[in-house]
Specification:
Layout lengths: L1 H23 L6 E3 L18 E4 L2 E5 L2 E5 L2 E4 L4 E4 L2 E5 L2 E5 L2 E4 L1
């Protein structure tokens, strides 16, 4: 009986660990579109928050159109600076680059 309990506990642990790994996995996908993003919106930045940096809003591509994502405060990381999400022209198309932390 003890062996069955131990084996069951081990199986549950493996399943939970696999589920956690699957939910934290992140895949970056290059996004290229033929439609230029609209001009950035003017944002009213809320009062500064200690320990946070402002990540400005940006145009994301959803389905077949650009969708605005409001800016937000993100927890600061010591020794890093936030590089905002952006679109860059690449020939006749536009390439989206996700925001990221870069070393100072």
């Amino acid at each position: 009986m003890k062996k069955i309990f131990t084996l069951s506990a081990l199986l549950v642990s493996v399943v939970l660990a696999a589920g956690a790994a699957a939910t934290t996995a992140k895949a970056d996908v290059d996004i290229y579109v033929d439609v230029a993003p609209p001009s950035p919106r003017v944002e009213v930045i809320p009062a500064p928050r200690r320990g946070y940096v402002w990540a400005p809003g940006y145009w994301a591509w959803r389905g077949h159109r650009h969708v605005w994502h409001d800016g937000q405060w993100v927890r600061a990381r010591a020794g890093y600076r936030w590089v905002p999400d952006r679109w860059e022209r690449d020939g006749d198309r536009y390439h989206y680059y996700r925001g990221y932390w870069d070393r100072d």
